[in-house]
Amino acid sequence: MPATIEGIFTPHVVPLDDQGNINEPELRRYVDWLIDKGVHGLYPNGSTGEFIRFSPEERRRIVRIVCDQAAGRVPVLAGAAEATARETIEACETYAEYGARAVAIVSPYYYRLCPESVYAYFREIALASPIDVTLYNIPMFASPIDVATIRRLAEFERIVGIKDSSGDVPFMMRMIQAVRPIRPDFVFLTGWELVLVPMLLLGCQGGTNAISGVVPELTRKLFDLVRAGQIAEAMTLQYRLLELFDVMLYSADFPEGFRAGVELRGFSTGRSRQPMSEGQRIDRVGLQRVLQCILADFGFVSAPAEGCPVRTGSIERDRVAQITASVVHELRQRGVL
Amino acid sequence: MPATIEGIFTPHVVPLDDQGNINEPELRRYVDWLIDKGVHGLYPNGSTGEFIRFSPEERRRIVRIVCDQAAGRVPVLAGAAEATARETIEACETYAEYGARAVAIVSPYYYRLCPESVYAYFREIALASPIDVTLYNIPMFASPIDVATIRRLAEFERIVGIKDSSGDVPFMMRMIQAVRPIRPDFVFLTGWELVLVPMLLLGCQGGTNAISGVVPELTRKLFDLVRAGQIAEAMTLQYRLLELFDVMLYSADFPEGFRAGVELRGFSTGRSRQPMSEGQRIDRVGLQRVLQCILADFGFVSAPAEGCPVRTGSIERDRVAQITASVVHELRQRGVL
Amino acid sequence: MPATIEGIFTPHVVPLDDQGNINEPELRRYVDWLIDKGVHGLYPNGSTGEFIRFSPEERRRIVRIVCDQAAGRVPVLAGAAEATARETIEACETYAEYGARAVAIVSPYYYRLCPESVYAYFREIALASPIDVTLYNIPMFASPIDVATIRRLAEFERIVGIKDSSGDVPFMMRMIQAVRPIRPDFVFLTGWELVLVPMLLLGCQGGTNAISGVVPELTRKLFDLVRAGQIAEAMTLQYRLLELFDVMLYSADFPEGFRAGVELRGFSTGRSRQPMSEGQRIDRVGLQRVLQCILADFGFVSAPAEGCPVRTGSIERDRVAQITASVVHELRQRGVL
Amino acid sequence: MPATIEGIFTPHVVPLDDQGNINEPELRRYVDWLIDKGVHGLYPNGSTGEFIRFSPEERRRIVRIVCDQAAGRVPVLAGAAEATARETIEACETYAEYGARAVAIVSPYYYRLCPESVYAYFREIALASPIDVTLYNIPMFASPIDVATIRRLAEFERIVGIKDSSGDVPFMMRMIQAVRPIRPDFVFLTGWELVLVPMLLLGCQGGTNAISGVVPELTRKLFDLVRAGQIAEAMTLQYRLLELFDVMLYSADFPEGFRAGVELRGFSTGRSRQPMSEGQRIDRVGLQRVLQCILADFGFVSAPAEGCPVRTGSIERDRVAQITASVVHELRQRGVL
Questions:
Q1: I want to staple C166 with a disulfide (CB 3.0 to 4.6 A). Which of B259, B270, C64, D335 is the partner?
Q2: How high is the pLDDT of residue A311?
Q3: Which H/E stretch holds residue B42?
């Protein structure tokens, strides 16, 4: 029987070289490092892994490398979404051969499909996949999967869990309450690290968190603290992740901030497949300096030689809050909200 | 039989004095000016008129002054929304006595009510009001009124029209298509001046546009051009309103930009009831200078002595576009969209 | 020195009579009952209390009754928002005389104001109020208060806390992280009962929760469990509140579902000030039957004589999830998101 | 010199066979029919053409077939978006060889990128593409392109126009006002057929409208009427497109309603690549019956033998309006808006 899916799975970035091609040696080195630092599993071809920016062949290669390098030390949850259900099923077959523990399949993207279409899509895959399937709900990027649909899909044995990146705490509770009675073994993973402690307390088995690719020691510790019932300590650590996460998420287009963080831990991530303007290149240098200061506070790296500014800890957040207010204003002016 | 509601009705600001009290002489002078400049009607207690920031007694006083000063020269559409249906009906009775042509009643605000509640609210008013009622749909600020609800409400004789501030062109077409067959006389007014020409072309009888309180000559001309079939000329004028509107709408919290515009036309608008910070007071001076330059281009005022900057015509707009993009990003990150 | 603001404050409904007028005896009886059942404080004129649907005089009367009846047994947090800053300050003065512990002031509503305007509004009040002020952030109904603004406002001694009804867990953490270092005594209360346990764990001093007006015993117990470190028990109870809350919130326009719940606990809430259609009246009977079944499970009332249906526990939620998906689709079709 | 891009370009569906593979003979037959019916150009690999659901090789094949079959009779605007800028540039090269007039490139999707990233992406393509590029703004599905970014991109000679599917009339005016002074030849096409007349009146050179794949005669006639200055007739026709469009857009997930419409015009569209549930298959039969009735009113097909129901013309629209209201309510409850 395959191992339980539990703990922190890292949706890792894919190191590239100077031409933007997959840097296999660096990817293998990064996989080793993540396992050494205590992640419970690996998750290639997630949103952090920029699956959308690779060709179908490249996506296969990435999973092959990761499964090969992990070599059974930790389970691999392989992102398997392709352009259609048929091609996704072919990817499932391939990843089963590669030895992945399960696949994670994002809901159809680009078009926003209705719940019935989302159901039909996953149903077709569930009936044909030779490998366990976890649903991947990320409403910011793809068609949302709602509670009713999850409950219907939980009736397929092949579907064993859901990774939810909405960060919506009551939504997670509603899912768990709707599915657990009919599928006690169904796995709930949160993709929103800022609420990892609450999500674990309310019954999630783990998380798939981009931040674990930068500070795997901390997410592991946070998980262990919750499991040990040391809630206050876990919550303190949860607070400490806030600044790091916000800086990586809001200072650059996702997932560039996380790629910058991985670099600071000693890995070359190479040339991004998404072009950057001059201004963005300069911003990234500034971002990385702030990141270095934050990581230095944790003791993972040394502080920049030129020193660290006093961080208010909320510059990015405030900017976001202000634009949120402004745009709601604008949307209302346009008569939409 | 009362006159048809048609043309441009001005949802005017209310001049205040230095203590923030109603400046009656200035309001009377402003009413005269608007009528002289060709507006087809007056609309006190609209959103531009900050009805929400006055007491019930003050709202009555404003309508009384406007009706008295208009003295039948143009019809008055009086905003009559109060805290409850009962009090709104009392306001309707009062405004009928004052000689208003009709009242405009905004959908319930603060709470966002479902269509059935919106229907029940207006139904109660329609059955009791002694004066014609126009619905006021402004989804950016109040509970939206949808097509099905409008059609149901159009069955009440007392309800004679709708003022729609959504600016949504297809929505207006859907309303007209749904209501005209059962109520050929139903009046559709647009509250979004940027699409005034298209709205008139597709069948609206007029508009209630804040900008007409600043440049009543232009909105009147635009209306007359469309009626005369001079579409190209009307569209050219429509384009010219774009910058003026955007600057007044997006450079300050509504309706402060319009109050600044009215001042430039020679009226004292007084101390705003919404407090301003130091920074905002400075910004308002800058806004007014830009406004003066725009109005000078139209020949309504002389340019500032210190000269005018080269206007790209889109600073405000771009800021809005960028924050819109950013906040959608943020909302998605938060798992909502 | 005034007592600390801590624990569960009930934003209570206001019982009305058959004409929709304040039912003072029933309000007094309800206040007694809430105190007997263990609420830590009372919060008249909140959103649950429909402050917007009362006249300024009625709002004063409500606070006077509640302060008088509480008679010092529990502190009163009085909603004091009026049409303008000036009138709000007058209400603060009045409520200080009535013996309220503090006032809660909602951010300006109807217009969506920018952060700078929100700051200027509260600043003016903070400088003039003779009574402690808590900010009230409820972005679903009023202008949002962002982290930067809260931090700036926390510099005024008169502002002693914030009640946040966004339910956004990371937002609460960001606020606490930004304000605690400069104001260790600043009070954070959550208005979103579905995340009460997580919010208490991350440092909130309490909550202002509409559900506490229906099941005050449970919110008190939940609070006590968290304080006693019995997290698992607290979380179990948190789950049990989910269905009750969802049914009251999503089965009718807010706060009618809560009014229906209060009735089941033995209080006459009277005729709503918001008109209801025939269909809504029938729906409300159905809603109340479901509510009775849920409350019977808790042992607070007996089950309906006609029996209870099997509840899936998620009918309302699914409907909401589906419409959310559909409307996002629609908004995208309209080119907004 | 290549022909001007002007008129109605059809973003056409791709006929499939029973296995979901490209049905080349039917695609060729459909191309001939569209040209015969008067479309000004063809637009393969648009959103209507489900580009996202084909492999890179299939996308090339589609463009090759369309260019070959069009054989210079009308220009081809080929959708060229691939996973990365590099691969998109390769597609540009290929489509230049195939004889496409220009390519249309959708803004990066899945991730929502900031304006600077959108700029950098198109800049890289503009510098390398051997074929004219039109930007494709479809904010409902992909990263939005704002006015400032369009203006910056209009400085690249290779970028010759924009296709905007936002349907936002003032936004189109802002774009035109910002770009025309620096690039008088820049082409603006609207992708929102419900506002085609207004968009043409304000200066758009044409449209890329899915509805033209179902009723090419009507969109052509509408275009010709506007050009001939017969605005009232054009507007009447614009109204008649409303019901047809709404039914095709809102009765099924996009673009299935348009595929159903194309079938009624005599083409086999085959098995959709997006799986359908049983319920959806039944709904599609119902949808097609309604569509047949609408198309019969236009005289394009005969009415169904079983007769047509009385159409209120707004069932779909109302449903959308109601869910919009409901979900805004829900979003607010969740503290987001």
A1: D335
A2: 72
A3: strand B41-42
Residue D203 one-letter amino acid: G
Q: Is C183 left (phi over 0), alpha (psi -120 to 50) or beta?
A: beta
Positive or negative CA dihedral for A214, A217, A220, A225?
A: negative
Task: Report yes or no: A322 and C146 within 8 Å, Cβ to Cβ.
Answer: yes
Taking 3-state DSSP, the helix, strand and coil percentages for chain A, each rounded to the nearest 5, stand at 50, 10, 40
Place of tokens 């890292």: A10
Shortest Cα distance from C21 to chain A (angstroms)? 33
Residue in chain B lying closest to A164 (CA): B335
Side-chain half-sphere CA neighbours of D75 within 13 A: 18
Residue A219, SS3 per DSSP: helix
Phi, psi of D297 (to 5 degrees): -60, -35
Domains assigned to chain D: 7-333 (3.20.20.70)
Whole-angstrom distance, CA of residue B93 vs CA of residue B70: 19
Element (H, E) at A105: strand A102-106
Q: State the pLDDT at residue D228.
A: 97
The whole-angstrom distance between residue C80's C-alpha and the CA centroid of its chain comes to 14
Please give the share of chain C, as a percent, with pLDDT higher than 70: 91
Report the amino acid identity of residue A316: E
Alpha-carbon span A140 to B330, nearest angstrom: 9
Beta strands, E only, C152-297: 159-164, 187-190, 206-208
Nearest alpha-carbon partner for D45 in D36, D58, D34: D58
- Chains within contact range of chain A (3+ C-beta pairs < 8 Å): B, C, D
Q: What's the rounded Cα separation, in Å, for the pair C162 and C164?
A: 6
- Looking at the DSSP bridge assignments, the partners of residue B77 are B102
Nearest to D75 by CA among D195, D176, D189: D189
Q: Which residues contact A153 (CB under 8 A, 6 or more apart)?
A: A119, A122, A123, A126, A135, A145, A159
pLDDT of residue D335: 36
Mean pLDDT per 10-residue section of chain B, whose length is 337 residues: 84 97 98 98 98 97 98 98 96 98 98 96 98 97 96 98 97 97 97 98 98 98 98 97 95 96 98 95 93 96 88 47 44 38
Calculate the alpha carbon distances from D6 to D41, D200, D288 in Å.
Answer: 8, 11, 32
- Strand runs labelled E in chain D: 7-10, 41-42, 77-79, 102-106, 133-137, 159-164, 187-190, 206-208
In contact, B35 and B74? CB cutoff 8 Å:
yes
More confident residue, B193 or D325: B193
| B231, B313, B336 ranked by CB distance to D201: nearest | B231
Active site residue D136: yes
Residue type, D327: V
- State whether A201 and C197 contact (CB < 8 Å): yes
A273, D109: Cβ pair inside 8 Å?
A: no
- Rounded Cα distance between A196 and A33, Å, is 22
Of residues D314 and C272, which shows the higher confidence score?
C272
pLDDT of residue D333: 39
Q: If DSSP codes are grouped into helix, strand and coil, which group holds residue B157?
A: coil
Q: Could you give the CA distance from residue C176 to residue C207 in angstroms, rounded to a whole number?
A: 15
Sequential DSSP letters for C177-212: HHHTTT-TT-EEEE--GGGHHHHHHTT--EEE-GGG
Residue C221 phi/psi, 5-degree rounding, is -65, -40
> Which residues does chain A have with pLDDT short of 70?
1-2, 312-337
Amino acid at A107: S
What is the pTM (predicted TM-score) of this model? 0.93
Distance between C322 CA and the closest CA of chain A, angstroms: 7
Q: Please provide residue A254's backbone torsions phi and psi, each rounded to the nearest 5 degrees.
A: -60, 140
